[in-house]
């Protein structure tokens, strides 16, 4: 049953959802204690996700709902996995707002319990969900947090590898191994520098895109002047200030027979005018 459970999960990762569902359903069918067993929770959540990928999101949600009574006694990782799976199913079902709520819950729990790998996964799916929900600011914030979490995870993993290598070198006390350690340190430094440069470039690119989007939202594309949206946003403040005898005037300017220009000379000439 453990082998089948692992097989189902690996098939799910490979995108072979029908095969994954068959393996996982067999696990649950052959284990009479599955509904009451905490050990079976991962298989049941993998099955829920496989069904959602096969176009059966409601069936997947039903599997997750069936797991909820066990979550009170489950560890943090299972609760994170449950909330994250719920968010991914909502995302597959085209419900990005519900996905954002579930994934944010999973992310908060992962942070509170210091599950670094789960934080990275939650942020990755949360970025996609926020983008699909149309909240580009939240998507950008999640993307930035994702890059920072990936960097922290990379640094921690690299630090563990480096400490292990140093311990082996000290035990063997060999000049050859000492040279290997120095080479490993240099390689690690280069990789960290390269990754840092990539992250800085990505953040800068997104910052420029965000600034450009904010500018376009408030400016006319042809003249670069503030557009109607910017005007309507600023008008209430000006109107509120037109008190104590002060006046506020609004002027609407139009061009008569402007269509004649574009008809005779083309749209480029009209834009120039």
Low-pLDDT stretches are: none
Percent of sequence in beta strands = under 5%
How many beta-strand segments? 0
Largest sheet: none
In whole angstroms, how far apart are the ends? 76 Å
SSE arrangement, N to C: HHHHHHHHHHHH
Rg result: 28 Å
Which structural category do the helix and sheet elements fall into? mainly alpha
The count of helical stretches stands at 12
| Proportion of helical residues | over 70%
| Nearest-integer average pLDDT | 86
Shape: extended
Describe the structure.
It is a single chain. The termini are far apart. The model has no long low-confidence stretch (mean pLDDT 86). The chain is 78% helix and 0% strand. Helix 1 (2-13) runs parallel beside helix 3 (41-53) and helix 3 packs parallel to helix 5. The chain has 12 helices and no strands. The relative contact order is 0.05. By secondary structure, it is mainly α. It has helices at 2-13, 17-30, 41-53, 57-71, 76-92, 96-112, 116-132, 136-172, 175-218, 228-241, 258-265, 267-272.
Outline the fold blueprint.
Elements: H1 2-13, H2 17-30, H3 41-53, H4 57-71, H5 76-92, H6 96-112, H7 116-132, H8 136-172, H9 175-218, H10 228-241, H11 258-265, H12 267-272
What's this entry about, in short?
This protein has helices at 2-13, 17-30, 41-53, 57-71, 76-92, 96-112, 116-132, 136-172, 175-218, 228-241, 258-265, 267-272. The protein has 273 residues and is mainly alpha-helical.
């Amino acid at each position: 049953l453990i082998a089948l459970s692992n097989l189902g999960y690996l098939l799910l990762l490979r995108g072979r959802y029908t095969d994954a569902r068959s393996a996982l359903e067999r696990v649950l069918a052959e284990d009479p204690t599955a509904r009451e067993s905490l050990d079976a929770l991962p298989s049941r959540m993998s099955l829920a996700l496989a069904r959602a990928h096969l176009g059966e999101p409601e069936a997947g949600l039903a599997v997750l709902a069936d797991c909820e009574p066990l979550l009170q006694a489950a560890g943090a990782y299972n609760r994170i996995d449950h909330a994250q799976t719920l968010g991914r199913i909502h995302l597959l079902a085209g419900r990005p707002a519900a996905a954002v709520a579930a994934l944010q819950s999973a992310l908060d729990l992962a942070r509170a319990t210091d599950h670094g790998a789960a934080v990275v996964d939650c942020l990755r799916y949360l970025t996609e969900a926020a983008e699909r929900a149309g909240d580009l600011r939240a998507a950008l914030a999640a993307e930035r947090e994702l890059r920072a979490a990936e960097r922290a995870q990379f640094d921690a993993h690299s630090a563990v590898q480096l400490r292990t290598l140093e311990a082996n070198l000290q035990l063997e006390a060999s000049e050859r191994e000492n040279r290997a350690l120095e080479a490993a340190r240099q390689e690690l430094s280069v990789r960290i520098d390269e990754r840092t440069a990539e992250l800085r470039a990505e953040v800068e690119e997104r910052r420029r895109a965000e600034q450009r989007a904010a500018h376009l939202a408030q400016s006319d594309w042809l003249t670069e002047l503030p557009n109607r949206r910017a005007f309507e946003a600023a008008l209430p403040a000006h109107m509120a200030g037109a008190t104590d005898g002060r006046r506020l005037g609004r002027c609407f300017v139009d061009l008569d027979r402007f269509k004649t220009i574009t008809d005779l000379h083309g749209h480029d000439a009209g834009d120039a005018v």
